[in-house]
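--- STAGE predict ---
source: upstream dedup step, 1 unique chain passed
mode: sequence only
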Amino acid sequence: MIGGKLIQYQYDLKWYTFRISFTVNGIELPKVEKKERAVLSIEESIAFRENPKHKKHPLYAAFMLQLLTGIRRGEVLALRVKDIDYKNRLIHIRKNAVFLPKSGVVMQSPKTKASIRSIPMTEECKTILENHKQISNELKLFFCNEKGKPLNPRNYQRTFETIFAKDYEGITLHSLRRTFATTMCANGVDMSTTAKIMGHTDIRMIAEIYNQPQFDTLLTAMQKYETALKTPNATEEAPSEPQE
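--- STAGE serialize ---
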């Protein structure tokens, strides 16, 4: 373990020195532009949920759960049967599934207290979960593979991107979580509530990453501006310059 840390330290030091040498010589390495993450529009979200091919897939309920609640990939894969409380319409998030090279898929405790939470179920979400055909397994997982073993997070994501997202340009598995947050904010849900449902400790994450206005919102804003320009007395007259 110590040897591994030493190698990593040496690598980090060389990279740091490399960047400094470029900066000192007046050459700055190019900055990588962040790509705008895609989300599903309301129309796309409806079509996505109602797609007959999607509904027939064994993992339909898992992907819909992510879209309808905004929970993380590892959280949905770690859900146990007892975590779904139909009576009180709650989904209890207590674990996170991760893949470790030497151990395979393991269930770990979430990294933050905010990630341990209970999320209310909508009627649509409740119905989808009730209709999910569960496979008996030793860990009592709500979602598992055909052999009753935990789902590998990478394979789960690959399934989504090759089957569910192929008709939607730029959509990834994380887009489901982003769609949830963006839609919540666009419909007037405050960031604090959205952050709590999503398991974030800091609402700035919602503001900086998820709360980005979509085309419909921008169009509405422009239409309001257009209306203001055509409406008499819609804006205050600019103050006249004082006369000498």
